[in-house]
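Input for the complex:
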Amino acid sequence: MASGHVTKRAKYKTTIKDPGTPGTLRMTLEKILFVPHNPKSAGKLDVEFRFIKGQKHTKEGSSKPPWLNLTNNQNGSFIFEFENYSDLQDCRDFVGKVLAKSGEVSEKPTVTYPDEQLSAAEMELRIKLLREDSELQKLHKQFVLSGVLTEAEFWATRKKLLDREANKKTKQRLGFKSAMISDIKPSTDGRTNKVTFNLTPEIILQIFAEKPAVHRAFLTYVPNKMSERDFWTKYFRAEYLHSTKNSVAAAAEAAEDEELAVFLKQDDILASESRSKIRRVDPTLDMDADEGDDYTHLPDHGIFRDGSKEVTESENELYRRTLSQDINRHAAVVLEGRAVDVELEDTRSVAEALARSKQESSTKGESYGDTSRERLDRVSRMTEIEDLQAPNNLPLAPLCIKDPRDYFDSQQVNALRTSGDELAGTEQIKCSLSSQEVYGSLRESISVIKAMGLKDPIVKPEVAHQVFDALTQSISTTKYNIGKNPQESVLDRLPKKIKEELLHHWTSILELLRHFWASYPITTSYLYTKVNRLKDAMSHIYPQLEEIKGSVPSDLRHQVSLLIRPMHQALDAAIQHYEADMQKRSARSGERPNGYA
Amino acid sequence: MKFQIEDVTVYFPYDHIYPEQYSYMIELKRALDAKGHCLLEMPTGTGKTIALLSLITSYSLSKPQSPIKLIYCTRTVHEMEKTLAELKLLHNYQIKHLGPQARILAIGLSSRKNLCVNPTVLAAENRDSVDAGCRKLTASWVRAMAAENPNVPTCQFFENYEKAASAAVLPPGVYTLQDLRAFGKEKGWCPYFLARHMVQFANVVVYSYQYLLDPKVAGIISKEMQKESVVVFDEAHNIDNVCIEALSVSVRRQTLEGATRNLNRISQEIDRFKATDASRLRSEYNRLVEGLALRGNLPITDTWLSNPALPDDILKEAVPGNIRRAEHFLHVLRRLVQYLRGRLETDNVEKESPVGFVASISSHAGIDQKTLKFCYDRLHSLMLTLEITDTDEFLHIQTICDFATLIGTYARGFSIIIEPFDERMPHIPDPVLQLSCHDASLAIKPVFDRFQSVVITSGTLSPIDLYPRLLNFHPVVSRSFTMSLTRDCICPMVLTRGSDQLPVSTKFDMRSDPGVVRNYGKLLLEMVSVVPDGIVCFFVSYSYMDGIINTWNDSGILKEIMQHKLVFIETQDVVETTLALDNYRRACDCGRGAVFFSVARGKVAEGIDFDRHYGRLVIMFGVPFQYTLSKILLARLEYLRDTFQIKEGDFLTFDALRQAAQCVGRVIRSKADYGMMIFADKRYSRHDKRSKLPSWILSHLRDANLNLSTDMALHIAREFLRKMAQPYDKTGGSDRKTLLSQEDLEKMGDGSVHEMLY
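Predicted:
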């Protein structure tokens, strides 16, 4: 079963009513291939597995023939009719495994190239995003369709949107399920007293993690001493005995069958594990230490039978296991998280992987000396009274940029462009600095900045002052105009159409400016043309804004002009920069005959 | 901050202080000045421990000519660690401000199991085997043997400690158990014996209740404490039960069988000694003629749990002649065991007073009261003479002798109850003879007599006038403080009906009703989806909890709960429970959230805090009444009625409500913390029950919250949590300060705090 493909005879049906085309079904890890026996017939099929979303199949014993129904992500389906149920089962298991795997394997990070070949899925995703977000759609229509930006450029700054959709599943590692495994209910076939348990590698991993003794038994017994099937049969027999809560019967059966006894007995690995764990437990809740201190718990001392202590049958204690123990163990395992990071294929590999990860963690656990430090810290944290004291360290979470690509995407796109026409453009500066030298010089310049401040501040103080003045003034005038209602903003007072127009212009200006500034310094001819395109687009917007200003009624004109002014200023700054740069460039172009196109 | 309370400069390690902490200190100082006992109830979460520690240490610093010693008793080891951690904080602060003159020595003391650093001894499972393992290596005769024969194993740590002799001292500082172990390891000295030795020099000793209350332990450990000590019993709401437990013994069939085996072994040993070293037995005889006072000179390693509280004059008396010889004593014990075996063979429940029982022993087995009284010491002496080190094997005969000494010593306050089987499982014969103590004042009396000031304090001592009666003492100060809250950060509710509007209760006739179980489950299910982080549930007993969890599991409620939070359960296995708690905390820390199922009167309810995100909600399912059919409880109630005129019903309600309040009070630690408390039983809405709750809970229990159903409780919970999430002014605004700075205190001077508080 572990092999990478399955080949079966089957009939392919396009609908349930379709009599079907007989042929051979071959499934590999990547795709499903169906070749009809009659080469002329039309039912040839070649589907990749990643389009398959799920599977359905008919039950054995039902009136229907053995059908396997694979649904793809466009809600279409492929139905195969097999010759018998065992074929169906093989295929079903195989599909299940492949599907489970494809859900987990993360997609390889792809770098978007300028003239990328988009897969259908990606295209679809983009279309979906545009459909969902009308604003995005408007921008897209405005710039991409009019040719100001290329499709790739437009999306390059929005990689995050694309990624989130695509990698939603793989971002987070899956833990164990919260539900207990005792919840696997057997399915009965209704005729005999036989019950069937469906075990997936997922469940098996969980059983192994929660019951180390079962895990050990599996590693020692299977396949030398018994088959895997026998092993699990025994296991569920033991579980059944537990569920009957009849410890006498359990003891009797265990006495007869030593392998069964392994499952019935208290887990000795757990016991020893807990003994080592108890040493690392938080001392403020170490009740085991009390036991060692408490002289009233000498046997036969203290009040024995006042109803507060519980009565338990002490015989067969060995074979008693309570629900509470199971629940505690389960919760502990869920909390620990999944240590195994392999593809869950078959039981053997699951068992071995778990054993490996256990070994690692136990060697880690050896270094137990430094935990005492941590224990002390925990105690002092538990004892301090927080509000009697000024907080000694501000409760700030350190800034953590989860995905730096959000910030550097636009730069990356430009860098990629460079790689294309490097030869034609600037001569490459050959840098042969060692990383240490680079680091050293970086440190040096940082320390210089630290000491002297920025020589060339991003914003000159005078300018900043001017901006602030303007802002305060405009805020105070608006306040004066609107009155005291803080809920109402200037925009709300404008007619709806104008408001929308303004907002749209604002977003499109932002989009253009983002691309514009990201293109500097111009190093390639591609950027050069791009900047030109952007500049044209910007100068188009300019008069449009003026138009809006002119169209509003006079009482609002002041407000609107206040709103439009920053947009104009931003555009002005960009165009100024562009012109200055052009002049510099033309001044230089004489010296460099093979300048930019 | 530092401030004056009358003539004492108090050093307090925080920048601010709660007004109730300030007035708590004033009351405490009054008691210290009067050299009398006091009883103080202050709500949990108002920093009782630190207020207490900083006042008493400052008090002792301000009177250097007659420094007082502080003996701080906690119920559990982890509370001990916490107290010492707080003391460490305080001590660092005092040193910073006062310099080296503020140096004190503070140590925690526990059993060998918690202090031993010898890996071979530590490998043993429980406390008794660790004790025995230690004795095997350190007993005086073992060491004498080792001096001759190098193959006899000894404990390197103890040998080093002995070698260092008087140089083996702890430098001043605050030592938690862990610090002691670390120090011992570093120096190669045995931390246990070092700590035992240092107890008499320490300024602050922190140990468990038993070290003072249990006469078996108190005899050796607390012997040398001077009268000028302040004894503090923290979290003392259960102190009467601890006292009673300390003096109660039960004898079962297994005990008698074990005792018989022990006697056979002793008899073999005697024969062996007679053949090889008869002089030892003779010298023991001579010593016994002179009296038992010799006991004091035994090497430190040979002492064991000593005899029950014996008045001093008995110690000077000679052992009665008929048990001075080892064989004779053995015969006495055999007769006693035989007699007890006969008494166990009964079909009916029998109840007897100690006087009657002693008379009947005297007539049937021919052992008089005086002989009985000396049994424990005589056994101790015999075992030392016979050089028995594996004392953990001899627990059974020790129990028998303990029993004999108790009935020989006390004529009142006890009763002997023989039950042929457990009431709840009548089909399993399990006869037991129980000597149960009813009078809590017996065990604590020596403490009140011996020490200058005894402070009994807890978050729940309501009704506060009951404790002096139960413990039979006269406090000079007895006060109950309320809590001044900056905002309503506790939200108690009484839930009387489930989501289907039917009443919920754990009353005997209702508790197994599937409707009630389902309603309880629904309540929890609704709450786990609303309340963030940790939720704690308390049930009335283990068996009830087991039953209800199984039902929830079958009906799928448990599965639904698990979808919201992880579930952890207290079991009777301490190790497992500890690990479950640790995991619970981790689940709360990492944001996963968890529910902890626990039992009122269980170990978790007694000592574990669920403050901050570890417990945003406590649900008390039912009223935790004691098992009222218990013969022992009935006998105790009868005794209380006859002696103290306390009505049965009143005592039972008082006891149940203090347990409930105790469970619920574990959610709050400071005024910045917040938590909800749900009392899920219709009986809580009755005034006679509710009014027994401590006043700090009652004052927040609004009339509107007295009769809720699940949906209403859910609504209130949502509102409450939303309100608590808002930022607030920690100092409590201008009119009513709930946080005082040093200037505030200076401005007010003495006295005016009271006006502000009340």
